[in-house]
What we know:
The structure holds 3 protein chains of 3 kinds.
Chain A: E1 2-11, E2 17-27, E3 31-36, H1 43-50, E4 58-63, E5 66-67, H2 72-77, E6 79-82, H3 94-104, H4 110-121, H5 136-148, E7 154-158, H6 166-181, E8 185-190, H7 193-199, E9 202-207, E10 210-215, H8 217-224, H9 229-243
Parallel strand pairs in A: 3-8, 3-9, 6-7, 7-8
Antiparallel strand pairs in A: 1-2, 1-4, 4-5, 9-10
Helix pairs in contact in A: 3-4, 3-5, 8-9
Chain B: H1 2-17, H2 20-49, E1 55-58, H3 61-64, E2 73-75, E3 90-93, E4 101-105, H4 110-137, H5 144-147, E5 148-154, H6 158-195, H7 198-203, H8 209-240, H9 257-282, H10 286-304, H11 316-320, H12 322-334, H13 340-366, H14 369-372, H15 377-382, H16 387-411, H17 413-436, H18 440-444, H19 451-475, H20 483-493, H21 499-526, H22 532-546, H23 550-570, H24 574-593, H25 603-618
Parallel strand pairs in B: 1-2, 1-3
Antiparallel strand pairs in B: 3-4
Helix pairs in contact in B: 1-8, 2-6, 2-8, 6-8, 6-9, 6-10, 6-12, 8-9, 9-10, 9-12, 9-13, 12-13, 16-17, 16-21, 17-21, 19-23, 19-24, 19-25, 21-22, 21-24, 22-23, 23-24, 23-25
Chain C: H1 2-16, H2 19-53, E1 56-61, H3 64-70, E2 75-77, H4 82-86, E3 92-98, E4 104-110, H5 115-142, E5 155-159, H6 165-200, H7 203-209, H8 214-247, H9 251-259, H10 263-288, H11 294-312, H12 324-327, H13 330-343, H14 348-373, H15 376-380
Helix pairs in contact in C: 1-8, 2-8, 6-8, 6-10, 6-11, 6-13, 8-10, 8-14, 10-11, 10-13, 10-14, 11-13, 13-14
Amino acid sequence: MIEARGLVKRFHSPRTVVAVDHVSFRCLPGQIFGLLGPNGAGKTTTLRILSTLMAPDEGSAVLNGYDVRREPERVRASIGYLSTSTGLYGRLSAREMILYFARLQGVKEPGRRVDELVEEMGLAAFADTRCDRLSTGMKQKVSIARVLVHDPPILILDEPTAGLDVLVARSFMELMERARAAGRCVLFSTHIMSEAERLCDRIAVIHRGRILANASLEELRLATGQHYMESIFVHLVEQAEKQA
Amino acid sequence: MRRQTALVFRWTLLQQLRDPSGLLVIFLIPVLLNPVALWLGDRFQSRLQGKDAQLLVRVPEELAQWILPEDQLELVSGPHSEDNDSRALASVEPARDGEPARIHYRSIRQQSVLAKSRLETVLQRFQEHEVDVALEQAGLGITYQQVLDIQERDLATSQESQAGLLGRLLPLILLFVVMNAAMLSALDAITGERERSTLETILSSGVNRLSLLMGKVGVVVGVALLSGLLALMSLWASLALGLYHPSTGGLDLPFHAIPWLLVLFLPVTLFLGLVTSLVAAQAPDFRTGQFNIAMLMLVVLAMAGVSAFPSLSLSAFLALVPVSGVAMAMREVMVGHYQWGLLALVLLASLLHLGLAVYLGARMVVREDLLSGRYSVAERRALGRFAPEVGGIFALCLLANWFLGQRVQSLDFVWGTAFTQVVIVMGLALGGVIWVGARPSITWQLRWPGRGDTALALVAGLGAPGISLLLARVQAPLLPIASSYREQVNAALDLDLPMPVLLALFAALPALSEELLFRGTLLGLLRRHSSPIKSVLVVALLFGTMHMQVVRVLPTTCLGLLLGAAAMRGRSLLLPMGIHVIHNGLLVLLGYGHWFPDGDPPMVLLLPMAFLSVASVAAMGRRP
Amino acid sequence: MRTILAVMGKELLEASRDANVLLYALGFPLLLYPMLIWGVVQLLQVEAGVTESQPSRVAMSAPREMLSALAEPPVESLPGGEEDLLADRLDAILELVPQPAGGLVARLTFRSTRARSRRARALLSERLESWRQHYLEDLGTGMGRGAGAFLPWKIEAVDESPAGEVATTVVSRVLAVLLLTVLVLSTLYPLVEVMVGERERGTLETTMVAAVPRLHVVAGKLLAVMLIAMTAVLGNLVALLATLASMLPDLGSTLGPLASRDPLSLFMAFMGLLTMALALAGSMGLVILPARSYKTAQNNGMVLGTVFLGLSALALFPQVEAGPVLALVPAAGTSLLLRDSIAGGVPMSLGTIVVVTNLSVAVVGFWLGSRVLANEGYLFGERLPRWLAWMERRRD
Lengths: 244, 624, 396
């Protein structure tokens, strides 16, 4: 599980900006947790803090029982992280790409694990093609396989469906559902309301680094009196602006 | 159009000026390179030359008194011993009846070499004295010196000598700076722009392609020019500030040389900036651009390096070589050696190279793939664009000749030559066609020529030696043939072999194999897409280059033009083959038979032969 | 160790699929060396032809009996004076003035900044010397004292350097500098690729989230770069030897002494080269890592590379002898070690200092590199740590 407590991150150049402002939330195993917010709201920074790529200025986060500050390597061993860019090596084949990460993550019997994944994700047709010759959809599949290669209990996905067509995006959502069914803890960020609506067990609405609401869809509907996610979101943001 | 070019120029320049690290390399290096190098050279000059050190030597006693303080030699006592003396840098073994005096030293140690040359001075002094004593005893009243007192006087001032030393390095420094600036600028403005895919945006904005490229090339050339000028100025300033005090006197950039340096520098910088831009524009991505330009830079620096060799001088041939001619001319100008004819030739050649680069650049701009990426190999081949393959086959041919052919020929000349012709050249001709998947009979034009063309080819072949011999004679003032080379060629023909073997080896085989490769495979592939004139010209140039001798380039290239024209006009490979066999055969007979008193036929004979040959090829291909 | 190997293996696999690297490391040297040597041979041949076609123009005044001997071709006797020499119409002026007391004074005027004049001077000095020898011989014979009576003895310089070493000293100087130049250039470009390239494509972020120590990632990448650079060095060496072998059939006898070198010394040279490759990767990695783009990386690398090239060029000067102080200077020490171990031999102590210096540079580079890599400012282009901030101003 993921537990974030009072995370703060400031950027100083060119002038000081609080990118993440006292963010706290909790995401349990078997749950899909959505971080919903417009561009520049602080989603990516939050995810980077959780994946130990950045250190928080204040607050702490515990993933799978390990603290991001004190045991970053253990944290990294228990998460699968997908950044906004697909991040594939153009001159490696899909299979080599996955194998490389299996070795990096210290997977036992990496060869077998890769074969399994290739089978499971339906990559067999293009497993030996160089990554720079794959289509966007194929690339995305390979990245997912890479994320899953060490069977992590936690998945952190940064806008996984951005820029994908409907079919590929759909396969992503199926993946997340399967992960939930397997008892993984899935944290993902998005700015697409319908995705959050459909998938998330809990949704945190984040705006200007602050979490405006953190609840299930039903609770949000009750609290705001709106039905659609989009109107809930607009309502929350307007309220926050008014208070400020 | 002009407005657009100016616009592109201004914005590209602005972008480059906003990049601090680029500025650092483009402008700081030229400004700092000269003072730092001069200052270091000044500080370490005497240490590097090791001139001040007292050197330990071992000499016999009779010689010891002849060592003067200014010799800077110190003595180690004891006789010379065979085992390696660890303390003395050199030792003298005195002359004994008939045996010469020996100085023992070790050439791998610089100090030992220095000690040896100092000991030589001492020995000479001693011996002159001995001879003087002998002469006096004989009552001749003359000393060794007086027999012939050689007094040398050098009209070159020390200033000039120093300028000569500087002139050896200056072109290298200057061209390094220019290439460095052009490289960074071109990578950023041209290759980088494609990589960042901002190029597409500009292209779709309705800017004229030519003005786009011209604006960008303008920035590259401008930055290179500026960088080079800064280097020149910093050199002048650091010399004026006295950062370098050679022991032999002052050093200044000679005032008279400056305008000439600028005049020489300008076209070559424009040329290099343009070539760098073209290479950058060819690269599909930043990395490839980086690699290609780095290789270009190495080649350019190697060519500029000729000025560093004191034994080379500016010749008409060197004046025509792109970068080398300018580098050599700069060196000559630095010492005030103005060979007006050669300088004019250098300038003319520079302008010619520049013009050629501009022409090629303009041709490239019209090509669609230049800015938007390249064709894939399959696409290119389907379109019949085989230029890269032609280059590849030719490069392979050169390499195989160099590494394999030369080796085999040095083992056994006759069989080695035959091997080169049959295995390497013919092998590549066949292999090349198979590699690109073309049909040999069509590519090679294997068909019987018409009867009229056959007769014309016979005439052309008989006249062809006129062309090559005439050109060899015309170029002789520019490219005199060294006697060593002439002897080498004569030795090859003076093999103790019967005439038929010589004819087969030097006439039949080369004609067969070279025609198969050049007029068959290479021309066959090139003419699919390029115009006939261009294909024939390119193949002829390759043919001339393949003979690997500078003095043979012009005659063989022109012969290549004739053969190519015959192949294209007569539509049969057998025509150039025939001409080639007859041409080579006649030359062999000429060398063998010693028909003419001074070796070559007279001009009166050569001119009509050449004319006849050209005319009969021109008459080919006329269908009744 | 396992992860270092994984990173290294992946980088090597990627490099081997990059046509540029192959072309640069193997194809280019195979073309460059024959071209260079061919060019030089052709130039010399043309130069010889030009020299032959240019007689030495000398204004001579001498006793008649000497004139004929001195004015043999390629010397051509012309009228003229100093102003003609200054105007390049003459190459030298020789005046032989008989002295009242007997003997001659030879005044030879030339101009050392002109190649033709230098040639004329060398030719004339040689002829004058030989005339003096003949005169003294004749004098001795004429007086019945024997030809050698008034001749100084010949001086013979005996080179006690072991046979064949003389050829290898020249080779060693050029080779040492050449190999290091190749090493520097072929470290720079692959390094930019594995560091900056990875960051630009966004793959670095994913690697960093894997449970791998930063040091292992850096070490794996730098080791791969080192192997690529060493391959390029070997490729160049092979191309150079092949070129030489194709030109000189008796290459074996020229380079023979190399084979008979103390194997320990050659091993030291190899170790020097190997550790230098590591040190180069480490130190250049440090200036390339923080770069935000290919361009900056190349600029930074170029500057450091130029410094290293300048230092290694010291081996070109035979006067510079390897000592403990120079051995402590990274590129200079290695290039001197290479030169001296090819030319003769080096003391073990010196080789050890060079190897240890290189290794410590490498270790420091690797460690600092891992610090950079762990820095979030570096990863996401926000802010560099203060000790690296000088590298880069803010982007526009």
